[in-house]
Amino acid sequence: MSDVFDRVKKIVIEHLDADAEKVVENASFIDDLGADSLDTVELVMAFEEEFGVEIPDDAAEKIQTVGDAVKFISANAG
Amino acid sequence: MFDLTGKKALVTGATGGIGGAIARALHAAGAQVALSGTRQEALDALSAQLPGSVALACNLSDPAETDGLIGRAEEALGGLDILVANAGITKDGLLLRMKDEDFERVLDVNLGSYFRLARAASKGMMKRRLGRIIAITSVVGVTGNPGQANYAASKAGMIGFTKSIAQELASRGITANCIAPGFIVSPMTDALNEAQKEAITKSIPAARLGQPDDIAAAVVYLASDQASYVTGQTLHVNGGMAMI
């Protein structure tokens, strides 16, 4: 598992109070991890802060799973 | 009665009659206060009377400056728990004579700046799971007033805006409410002649104009921990002139 995945996982666990074993690559924030729409906005803000990356609104809308977030951050973080 | 010790508050329009009273009342309740307005000298004079306060001059008709104000307040105070969006302008005129710029400017300063301030402030408040957003609107936003279509529209807009964000932010420990003053003693009402004042007073069951402190007391209540279950509301402080 990548360093990015581990850091994303840590943020998701902290923020959503989710079980660590449920935070897997294809887990959906809303369907599997109990996030509401505001949580997803907060998660994106937390990712931006952690990785120093800007996630535009149209990209943020497509980030629905843990894997989506890892993929975007890996491709865009400096 | 309401203790705001350790809370950090930003008041816009702090050099006005109502804004100044709000800043003093929050300070008296223990809050650390950031004062915003356009007149640096007046801000500094008020700040000198309120130990621990900071003066942050800002032109709220400038979107970029407005966006940056919350960050400046958070930096100066070490966070922001209470936003009081009090600044507002009027450009009165009857509909047929109202210019585009009179309409747009009033909407932009009164409603647009509130949107920008609330958006920026809610970010930090969401992280801390605590916040109080308080907008000073007006009785005319609910009743209407001839000659003030632009002002009334901006104030009604603030109420609808507040109800929406109250629903979005409630689960994060953030409340958003409006206070709607009626006729309050201010430079604006000082300009009225005796006959006008008498006519206004007749329409108020309390038979007097309100004082800025009447509004400030409502702000302190809504800012307090005790008001944590009150959100999306408009508290009318008007001596009974409109009961809604």
Task: Write up this protein.
Helix content of chain A is 59%, strand content 0%. Chain A is built from 4 helices and no strands. Chain A is mainly alpha-helical and 78 residues long. The model of chain A has no long low-confidence stretch (mean pLDDT 93). Chain A has one domain: ACP-like (Non-ribosomal Peptide Synthetase Peptidyl Carrier Protein, Chain A, Orthogonal Bundle). The longest helix of chain A is centred in the middle third of the chain and has 15 residues. Helix content of chain B is 48%, strand content 15%. In chain B, α1 links the parallel β1 and β2. In chain B, α1 packs across α9 and α4 runs parallel beside α6. Chain B is globular, with a radius of gyration of 17 Å. The chains are: A mainly alpha (78), B alpha/beta (244). Chains A and B meet through α2 of A and α4 of B.
Please give a handful of descriptors for the protein shown:
heterodimer; A: 78 residues; mainly alpha; Non-ribosomal Peptide Synthetase Peptidyl Carrier Protein, Chain A; 4 helices; 59% helix; B: 244 residues; alpha/beta; 7-stranded parallel beta sheet; 9 helices; globular
What can be said about this structure in brief?
The complex is a heterodimer of chains A (78) and B (244). Chain A is an all-alpha fold and 78 residues long. Chain A has helices at residues 3-16, 37-51, 57-62, 66-76.
Give me the secondary-structure topology.
The complex is a heterodimer of chains A (78) and B (244).
Chain A: H1 3-16, H2 37-51, H3 57-62, H4 66-76
Helix pairs in contact in A: 1-2, 1-4
Chain B: E1 8-11, H1 17-28, E2 32-37, H2 40-49, E3 54-57, H3 63-77, E4 82-85, H4 100-128, E5 131-136, H5 140-143, H6 149-169, E6 174-181, H7 187-190, H8 194-202, H9 212-223, E7 234-237
Parallel strand pairs in B: 1-2, 1-4, 2-3, 4-5, 5-6, 6-7
Helix pairs in contact in B: 1-9, 3-4, 4-6
